[in-house]
Amino acid sequence: MKKLLCIISFFFAVFNAQSNCVSGTVAAPVVDSITVDIAGNVTICWQAVPDPDVVSYTIFMINPITSANDSINIVAAPGNCFTLPFGLNTSDLETVELGVVAKDVCNNSSPVGVNYHNTIHLENTLDICAASISLTWNAYDDFPTGTNLDYKVFVSVNAGPYSITGNTTALNYTYAGIVQGSTYDFYVVGVENNGVGPASSSSNDIQINTVNFLKDPAYNYLYTATVVDSQLVDVQFYVDTSADISHYNIQRSESITGPFVTIGSVSASIGMNPLVTYYDYDVNAIDRYYVYQVETINSCGDLKLTSNIGKTIWLYVESDGVGEKNILTFTSYENWLGGVNTYEIHRSVGGIWESSPVATVSAFGDTAVYEDNIMQVVEGNGEFCYKVIAQEGVIAHVGGIPAASSTSNESCALHEPLLYVPNAFSPLSPYNYEFKPVLTFSEPAGYLMQIYNRWGQIVFETKELDVGWNGRPNNVGLMSPIGSYVYLIKFQGANGDDFSKRGLINLLN
Hints:
Immunoglobulin-like
């Protein structure tokens, strides 16, 4: 009964108020902001009109098709916010404009269309070449304090928590460093008074899947640069085949500091071997070292990653005939991940490579000198050739590739033939019973030895280096008379030069 009396009293009061109504206008509500939340709901809030006769607020929306002022809802006073749910608004596609009209008990209203606020609509453009996202949005220009807003850009990566990635007073922002395959969510918050507030407005949230972005290479490693012969260097490099790369530029310099010049390229392809080989035929490895590096170029033509350098080993050998040794000078290899562990010095004598290195040298700075003593070498044609092989230190490489090696150019030294001729022999002795010179560093095919008696007659002749004179004419028959005989020895050195020597040999008992 009491409740019924209250209702009757309310209607009686309204009836009395309306009976006293006069026509007029109501003050327009001051809209604080219109904003979009992460779920896509649009909320508009306003300051309540300080008039006790205001009984409701009508929410109007600008029709995106007809541009008409459509009434969409009524909020009873003293309410001061209204939310238009996702699905009933188009904030993810365009700007939504809402306004508020106050109505009093006399059905008087504030003006329609004077306090509309528009949402911030966020859009994006993908730049797959720069691996970036360009964000743009419309200005929020409805705050009573004006358009001096600070826009804060929020990002969530792979559904992680949102964080501010940057802020600007402009209407655009570029987000760089995209990782292919990751998902990015963005929204923008405009804060009035240059970011001081108190009012702010959030844009719609946009989600971007970067599966179609160009993936940058994670690595590009120059594995080795090694000399094959005087006109060929083998360059090997290990690449990230999962990256979106168009081709690899091979660059060469004659100095570690450059400048580098592109000498060729290798196209990237699906399923390619990550260990790539390039042959550089335009070299003169006898005279100098070369420095290489590799550039990765993506399908946009952009340089994405440059490898470490690789500097070949240059070897120079000269003979020291007096000291019976060869002097080797060689440069260091640059620039392995594991550094150089050792340098192996290999030697060939007369064109035959020995099975094991003659020496092993520790890592050094720029240039090393090594002396190879050849006094104990009695065979061969006088030509000594060398090569140096650098071995990388043990280290874990990407892809599990083993430690690398690099071989220098081959460099050779020629030695003049060494001839030892005895001055006497005794055919009947158990020891020095044969006249046979000792000749090293010569070509046996060019060898000739002749023995003459005192009347200038040839008593012995041979073209075989291993055949000596036993004192008998042509090594058969009776022993020749005791006395002095003249020998003539001719031969060729390793370089093709002719040598000859003439002297006396005494035939003894």
